[in-house]
Amino acid sequence: MKLSNKAAEIFVPGGDDQAQAIARTTDLCIAAHQDDIEIMAYGPISGCYGKANRHFAGVVATDGGGSPRSGVYAHYTDDDMKAVRMEEQKNAALIGRYSVQILLSHSSGDVKDPFCRAVIDDIKEIIQKCAPDVLYTHNLADKHDTHVAVAMGVIRALRELPAEKRPHKIVSMEVWRSLDWLCDEDKTIVNTSEYPNLASALIGVFDSQISGGKRYDLATAGRRLANATFFASHAVDDFESVNFGLDITDLVNSNICPADFIGGYIDKFKNEVQNRILKMEE
Fold this sequence. Notes:
The chain is α/β, with parallel strands linked by helices. It has helices at 18-23, 36-40, 42-48, 78-95, 108-112, 117-130, 145-160, 196-204, 207-210, 216-230, 249-252, 258-280, and strands at 9-11, 27-31, 56-62, 100-106, 134-138, 169-173, 188-191, 242-247.
């Protein structure tokens, strides 16, 4: 696989042949930062864990240089943080038994630049080589600019590929903003109940963020538990823990403007809320 950045790395946790590890991918997650994969794509990670016929691959677009830091990491330089976060991500890939972990090492500025061809070309190359059945990425209603930029990059790259080269399903996931607000019929339910010890271990790997002042370990588990319990008010829980996603397959396979696409779901939510209130008025 040919990637644009000299600092990019392709890590195969099991030490298998790189080309084979890439080609056997069934579930692919393309994320902005180190630990985003483990927050939003634990469902497919656990679904592939220990399976002979399913293999998970992760992609991180940025280099981690701008990460917040405190405590023992307070005096780390950007280069120090890049090294730490790359090592953390590779450790997560080892624990989660990923087929392959790809680190593109682009700056956040390049990822957010819609005219930067390097990021789009890297994503296209990865999708073509991995040929996944399902692709996961960030959602368009996320409040982190770099996350939305990655989602837009994925959409753009997929649209540049022939239809037969695209995954059968593309799901956008929650990180920096829950997708709880979606109307229930529009939510893709991703079961995260399996192997809770594995889920904890994967988030716990990212010590530079957790001990640095962001309790992603507690927040991630809490969101998943809350999603499962508060999903249905008049039924028992189907799962103990879930993430919510939004299927964007139809968006990718069309010329719909992404802003209009997500705007339609926002309008639908607005109408649902208003109609429920109106029913209660005299």
